[in-house]
Each structure stands twice: as structure tokens, then as C-alpha cells.
Specification:
It is a single chain. About 35% of the residues lie in helices and about 15% in strands. The chain is of the alpha/beta class. The chain has 2 domains: about 230 residues, TIM Barrel (Alpha-Beta Barrel); about 70 residues, Antifreeze-like/N-acetylneuraminic acid synthase C-terminal domain (Type Iii Antifreeze Protein Isoform Hplc 12). The strands form 3 sheets. An 8-stranded parallel sheet has the order 5-4-3-10-9-8-7-6. A hairpin with a 2-residue loop joins strand 1 and strand 2.
């Protein structure tokens, strides 16, 4: 999957999620993006909605949060009014991120947001977990022909299949699925990261992780299991508070995560049985056959005068039984590496 100049098959794509962590301040949003870059993020992701494009302004119980979340007892409309990123900021934020060499895109929550983001020439789109069941929105987003990233935090297997089918109907096969646990913050025991390689095999698409834990272990484990995208919420300082602060990483924490992910990439390398130059040199410390005591011409090779020891400059130990009982063809001092030329 290519997003802008980034190729996720060459390098894990690390996305810093701004979400509501600007706390209503454009200056804070700009400073946050600068800190994202300094912390190693490849991209910044926004959320593009207004309270009225994502919910209804209703006072009934159904429109009041009561699910054991951080936001319980709040009206949906009030929460989204506080958390939204003003649309008039988007151009400024996009330009700032671009000046830093970062990719910038967003999650649209209705078709008007898609149209608006198209005017900004976004390189990709992200479908949020709670929108994975909105097939018309996915179809409209996919129809723009841009790479599409889909979180699966509340999705059943059939929901994922429906979302993929919607993209394919629009002729869009540039899809990445993100394993996600929609709990804020997410407990480690509910992450089930072994789903990542199963998703790759089952759906035949790139897979990543949208992570809401407060640990950097989940992204590292996800990359080890094949994740090509990592998305994590970012905040300048959790003491700022705000709708998403409790499950967002501060700059030093995000930097530690990025460094750990990059180290994991280096550790994984590629499938190979060839030895590196250092490993080849280290073979000198392996065992091999050596003359273990002074011997005379014609003397028989025995387990007493030939031994498998370190270093590795003699014959391979696998030949020990083959040489026992043969004769030395010259006098040899203790410590001589054994070779076929010395026996007959």
C-alpha cells in the first residue's frame, strides 16, 4: 500500500492521531503536529465531522452515552461539539504537516466530509471503527480511488467482509485493515493480536493495528506478527485533559514506541539461511577436529589423540567416526587442525 511517498511494504507506516487532542486550540494543534514529527511519526490523521454530521441533537437516553466509557452521561452532540477539529483549520494543518514532510489524511464521517477532503487532495482515507457498518459511506469514500484504511474495532467477521465488498464494488482494492479493540484505554488481554496474521491470510490485504492501549508493547508485537501500519493517539501532555487524553501517548512515549517498532523491523529482517559477515567470522569459534596430543607417523587416529574442540579451523566434527582407525602420514604436534591431507 502506497500513501503519498510512503510504501508500507518497505517500512511500517506510523500514524499519529490528533483526534480531539488540540482541545479547541489551533495553536495547540500545530504544536502537536510539530511534536509528532519530532517523535518519529510518518503521518498525522485528523477526524472530519461536525456534531450535526455525526449525530442528532437529542436529549433522549439513546443519545446520551451510558456504556461504561470515559464519556458516560454526556450527550453525543455535546461531546462531538467539543472534540471536533474545525473544518476551517484543515487546510492550515495540512500545509503545516506537509512542510514537515508528513503525510496528512483524515477520517470522514459523512459524504460531505469526503467531498471536503477531496478538495484538499488527501492521499488516503481512514474509516473509523464505528463507521465500518456504514456501507454507503464506505462505498462513497472508496469511489474516490484513494487508498482506504479501515478499523475493525466493533466489527464482526461479516462486517469486515461487507466493508471489503463495498470497496471492491467501487473498484478499489487498495485496502488496509486495522486490528482494533474499541475500549478506551484497551486492556492488553482483549487485544488478541494473533488475529493479525489470520486477517492477512483470510482477506488477502495489508493489515495493521489501531492501538488504544497505554503500552508500546502492542505495536511492537503487532509488527512482529506482520502489521504494516500502526496508528496511535498523540497528545502534548495528558495533563491537558480532553476527550481522548486518557489513551493518548505523550511525545517521549510515542518516540519510544517508534524506536521500538523500527528496532523490531530490523530484528525481523527477511527469511534467509545465509550467514552475515559477522556470523561467518563467528564460525571460527565453532568446534572442529584437532590433534589432541603429539603423534608420530603411522600412529592410529583414536578418540584420545583426535578431539572435537574449539576453534573451528579443522575438519567438521561430523567426520570423527570416519577418520578413527586411519593413520597419520607424518609427525604432528598437539593443536594441529586435522585435515584429510594429514591422514591415510
Amino acid at each position: 500500500m502506497n500513501i503519498g511517498h510512503h510504501k508500507s511494504d518497505e517500512k511500517v507506516f506510523i500514524i499519529a492521531e490528533l483526534s480531539a487532542n488540540h482541545n479547541g486550540s489551533l495553536e495547540t494543534a500545530l504544536k502537536t503536529i510539530t511534536a509528532m514529527k519530532a517523535s518519529g511519526a510518518d503521518a498525522v490523521k485528523l477526524q472530519t465531522y461536525t456534531p450535526d454530521t455525526i449525530t442528532l441533537d437529542c436529549d433522549t437516553e439513546m443519545f446520551t452515552i451510558a456504556q461504561g466509557t470515559l464519556w458516560d452521561k454526556r450527550k453525543f452532540h455535546d461531546l462531538y461539539a467539543e472534540a471536533m477539529t474545525p473544518w476551517e483549520w484543515h487546510g492550515t494543518l495540512f500545509e503545516h504537516a506537509k512542510s514537515l514532510g508528513m503525510e496528512t489524511f483524515s477520517s470522514p464521517f459523512d459524504p460531505t466530509a469526503v467531498d471536503f477532503l477531496e478538495s484538499l487532495n488527501v492521499p488516503a482515507y481512514k474509516i473509523a471503527s464505528f463507521e465500518i457498518t456504514d456501507i454507503p459511506l464506505i462505498e462513497y469514500t472508496a469511489s474516490k480511488g484513494k487508498p482506504i484504511i479501515i478499523s475493525t474495532g466493533i466489527a464482526t467477521l461479516s462486517d469486515i467482509e461487507d466493508a471489503l465488498d463495498a470497496c471492491h464494488r467501487m473498484g478499489n482494492a487498495s485496502i488496509t485493515l486495522l486490528k482494533c479493540t474499541s475500549a478506551y484505554p484497551a486492556p492488553l488481554e482483549e487485544m488478541n493480536l494473533l488475529t493479525i496474521p489470520d486477517m492477512q491470510k483470510r482477506f488477502g490485504v495489508a493489515v495493521g493495528l489501531s492501538d488504544h492501549t497505554m503500552s508500546i508493547a502492542a505495536p511492537v508485537a503487532a509488527v512482529a506478527l506482520g502489521a504494516r501500519v500502526i496508528e496511535k493517539h498523540f497528545i502534548l501532555d495528558r495533563k491537558m485533559g480532553g476527550a481522548d487524553s486518557a489513551f493518548s501517548l505523550e511525545p517521549a512515549e510515542f518516540r519510544a514506541m517508534v524506536d521500538a517498532v523500527r528496532d523490531t523491523e530490523r530484528l525481523l529482517g527477511s527469511v534467509t539461511y545465509d550467514l552475515s559477515e559477522k556470523s561467518l567470522k563467528s564460525r571460527e569459534f565453532s568446534r572442529s577436529l584437532f590433534v589432541a596430543e603429539n603423534v608420530k607417523t603411522g600412529e592410529m587416529l583414536t578418540r584420545a589423540n583426535v578431539r572435537s574442540v574449539r576453534p573451528g579451523f579443522g575438519m567438521a566434527p561430523k567426520y570423527l567416526n570416519a577418520v578413527l582407525g586411519k593413520r597419520f602420514i607424518r609427525d604432528l604436534p598437539k593443536g594441529t587442525p586435522l585435515s584429510w591431507e594429514l591422514i591415510g
